[in-house]
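Encode chain A's predicted structure.
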Amino acid sequence: QGQLVESGGDSVEAGGSLRLACRTSGNIYYSNYYMAWFRQAPGKGLEWVSRITTGGATYYEESVKGRFTISRDNAKNALYLEMNSLSPDDTAMYYCAADLLYSRLITGGLYRGQGTQVTVSS
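Encoded structure for chain A:
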């Protein structure tokens, strides 16, 4: 069974930055998987934030374009999300997800971690 473990969440002030990390273990052969970040704010549904293909192509939700950067390090089985110019609207639990099927990844993915909390105060 594959596992994803997120880290890096914290409480910051508006305008601040954070770097989230996600590491995989188990039977996830990382380089074969499409990866993504999702977030869920209190009382809201799961929202896709960013995704990266096996070839390194990146995509972003409109509200985070220019502020967030997704990257992956296949040698370390790691996924990252660099977040800059954070605003209170970015407050949420952030999850990484992995899937062999791109179409399934964009709806939440086969594997998803437990999440890391990001809180941005004004």
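The radius of gyration is 13 Å.
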